[in-house]
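Q: Sequence in, structure out?
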Amino acid sequence: MWNADRSRRLAAMSTGVRRVVHVDMDAFYASVEQRDDPALGGRPVVVGGSPDRRGVVAAASYEARAFGIHSAMSMARACRLCPSLVIVAPDFTKYRAVSAQVFEIFRSVTPLVEPLSLDEAYLDVTENAWGETLATNVARRLKSRILEATELTASAGVAPNKFLAKIASGWKKPDGLTVIAPERVEEFLQKLPVHALWGVGPVTARKLRQRGLERVIDLRAADAELRLREVVGSQAEWLRQLAMGVDDRPVVPDRPSKSAGTENTYPADLVDVGAIRREVNAMARDAAAWLGRKGLCARTVTIKVRYSDFTTVTRSLTREPPTGDAGQVAERACLLLARTDAGRRPVRLLGVSVHGLVDADRARPPAADSLPFEGSEP
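A: Exactly. Output:
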């Protein structure tokens, strides 16, 4: 049995070669649905909302992915790509139950489990309950245990750090296992395009390529630093470290939440400002209820508004002391709403989130009444 002192000691380890495993369940939501309904086996399945109500794809089976369908795609487009697509409404109660089974397996092997979502996590298995000296063996046994317990497959990446382990887990999906031994790190990095780096999305990758930075190893050159900073600013040094295969971040179990919130895309555009305000008020109170369950308060309330033309704006308000009071959170969210064009422009999506979270018992009287509004509009 692992104890708290041992967990803290392992988390603080900073010397020697670490053995990190990243485990990612394969097409998790869709695979659960195919497991539970044999009639869905081998068919293109997506989990998500109705195409008639502006639904989006939350997960796609590998059969659906063969048609070019992927998560976050509009369901209407997914149906155009695959007319025989089977759409299943999400059942998060079921997915959370399966996730709990998987994470119980993880934590039986090591206390150093860092969840990323319901279906993926990092594990530091440098020391483990199985006494395995090879992380590859740990990964194989984890995959086998998961399959036995859930009838679902998982892909795993094994590497000396989190950055490489995560890339490795996606290398041979589904049901893959990719190992990057310390002596193979350089060989592996030579193959990677810049978009493989953390935080480099399609837009940033395109800008980097326009500046002659095509591959990860291109970021190492001395004359690349200026070009890199032009695109990513203060992230430049971090990305250069990753380009050299350096990632010293530990696997941190039970990472505290930094923010929480909800958003909703509406089947018909909202045009009545009263209805919009009621939606924002309800979302803000949901966020406050979450704060109460977690014993937290928030310094910052943020709203998100997407208009019918897909223009998206955010507005934030930070005040001291932090609050978890539903009335105050809702009041701040509605104040922010007044700083948008909601009601004057049709609204497609609304969201409310809370940030700057602190333990409720640490909330102190304000040093100043408030900080000014902040907002952004791309």
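The first helix runs from residue 4 to 11.
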